[in-house]
Design goal:
- The chain is α+β, with helices and mostly antiparallel strands and 324 residues long.
- 48% of the residues lie in helices and 23% in strands.
């Protein structure tokens, strides 16, 4: 794996010239957005002045022009920054991916397909809205990998007392979704989920785990630390233990600690799926943050290194017996 010292050298010798051009582009976008924001604020001030009578009766009326103005500003910012964001990804994210490993490809608009996401069996609810970007794919050693950002949501609809319907969107998963060729052949399905029930409810939590409908049989393993963090379900006790060896369980625990995030795994048809939850968009530039600074470059590098490094963290390149 590449080191921070190597990244610094790459930044100083290769990236810096293109980043300087991007920084000028960023400043131009910020200036245009600032002018647009000033204009919108002026309009809001005029509207609030005209609404003084209504606001005297109910101060809540002031919220409508403010919220409307913020929505308009958000749309304008998105449209003005779109070209800069695309150029940033072509230069910075693509450059860092190739710096980490030349064998990897990068597509800023690509993502893991919805059918593949559903086939992993980690998330049972079918998405009503599905999107993603920043697809990285290629071969690391003996292991084919691909990953991208994913945001999958489902919707619910409520009706209030006046018969007005409202749609609500709920996140199924948002974060990094990784697929790799596993280093053992198997035919069963095994799903590894965060174990919140046992952590908070003890033995009662174990009972709730065994009731997890549609998940297959609860698999009890002999690693106490792993058992505290995860609940495992599968359709074959023996093959589940063959897949989740003592060394792999330790690696999964270490990876969980390394990320500090909620992680989900499944093993299906000799492939491994890993979902790492994030609330932020990982590979998007921050418009108000300068690029002439090594810190954001290091942040993008570490996020990509974490995803690409899953193959090493879980020892996927060690081929077992007949797996070639």
């Amino acid at each position: 794996m590449k080191t921070l010292e190597e990244l610094r050298q790459f930044y100083d010798t290769t990236l810096i010239n293109e980043i300087t051009v991007l920084e000028a582009q960023r400043k131009a976008v910020v200036k245009k957005v600032s002018i647009a924001a000033a204009g919108i604020l002026a309009v809001i001030a005029v509207v609030l002045t005209l609404m003084r009578g209504a606001m005297a009766q109910s101060p809540m009326f002031a919220m409508f022009p403010i919220i409307f103005g913020l929505v308009i500003l958000g749309v304008i910012t998105h449209l003005m920054a779109r070209g800069y964001v695309g150029q940033f990804k072509d230069v910075v994210i693509y450059g860092i991916v190739k710096f980490i490993d030349e064998n990897l490809s990068y597509s800023k608009h690509g993502c893991i397909g919805e059918s593949v996401f559903r086939a992993c069996e980690i998330f049972k609810r079918r998405p009503d809205r599905y999107k993603g970007d920043d697809l990285v794919a290629g071969k690391l050693g003996a292991t084919e990998i691909e990953f991208s950002e994913i945001h999958a949501e489902y919707k619910t609809t409520t009706t209030d007392s006046k018969g007005r319907r409202k749609t609500h969107w709920h996140t199924i998963f948002k974060g990094l979704f990784f697929i790799g060729d596993f280093n053992k052949d198997f035919a069963c399905e095994v799903v590894v989920l965060p174990d919140t029930a046992e952590r908070f409810l003890g033995r009662l939590g174990q009972m709730f785990q065994s009731w997890n409908i549609g998940r297959g049989e609860l698999i009890k393993l002999e690693d106490p630390e792993f058992e505290k963090l995860f609940a495992v379900y599968g359709d074959d006790q023996i093959q589940a233990r063959y897949i989740l060896s003592t060394s792999l369980m330790k690696r999964i625990v270490d990876f969980k600690k390394k990320t500090g995030r909620q992680i989900f795994l499944s093993f299906i048809r000799s492939r491994i799926y890993v979902a790492v939850s994030y609330n932020k968009n990982l590979f998007e530039p921050r418009l108000l943050r300068t690029l002439i600074d090594f810190a954001p470059i290091q942040e993008y590098f570490e996020d990509l290194q974490l995803a690409i490094g899953i193959a090493d963290d879980l020892n996927l390149n060690t081929r077992i017996w007949s797996k070639q």
